[in-house]
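Hey, resending since the last one bounced:
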Amino acid sequence: MVDTSDEWITTRTGIKERRILKGEGLGTSYMATKAVADLLQRYNIDPLDIDLLICATTTPDMQFPATGNLVASNCGMTNAFSYDVSAACCGFLFALNTGAQFIETGRCKKVIVVGGDKMSSIVDYTDRTTCIIFGDGAGAVLLEPTTEHYGVLDSVLKSDGSGWVHLHQKAGGSQRPASIATVMANEHYIYQEGQKVFRFAVQNMSDACVEIMQHNNLTADDVDWLVPHQANLRIINAARERMGLPESKVMENIQRYGNTTSGTIPLCLWDWQDKLKKGDNLILAAFGGGFTWGSTYIKWAMNPQ
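The structure tokens again:
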């Protein structure tokens, strides 16, 4: 469909495979529900005990209701309130920190944060600059109170709205509602100026990682895992090198999933959960459209099951 090859894609992005959600009437809530249900089952959690569900997504099932409402209903969380957070590829990171605040204030005892996107719904498969990058996926985490020094400990979260011109979806919002003209002009797909976004991402995501380490007096030896947004292997490597980390300390699954936007970080945690030990120091980092970017310092709170 486009002028490219496996070698061209792999050398520029590191992506070998992507997952695409197929089936009529299936949206982001379908994947997010699967992720949340898996989490509840794995840790034997009663859905009635969940106080809050936050869904990070750029591709909601519909403008309203919130996709989080659908997921909570699908999973039987009738005692929880729920809503969506939209911050492009930083959505999960921002939602995670929001959920942590509800725990820290004592407002909630159990919070689920799920990140997921059906990026195939807004990808133009004739556009080589975007169609090779994005996939579909979702993942979820549970937040609970602790009296020990574990969990979400610190964050560096930033945004610069002037960056929207380089990465956005032109139509479909209130500024430019859907019409025959917008559909015919292919304005409901991702628009990205790849080189400019790449330069911003390399600089800002790396800076955020270094800043969070400096805030918490962490050396490369102190960091057990870098959990980066899986957008581009070169961006991940740039952050890793700035932090002074070896490749063995970096969670990478971009080869299997591509860029699932809000789903990348929780999918990494899902893939690596059996390797994580209580007390491990994790640095989560992301960069997304908006521009949005940041890093979060987490001390892992449990041993493998």
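The chain has ten helices and ten strands.

Sorry for the duplicate.
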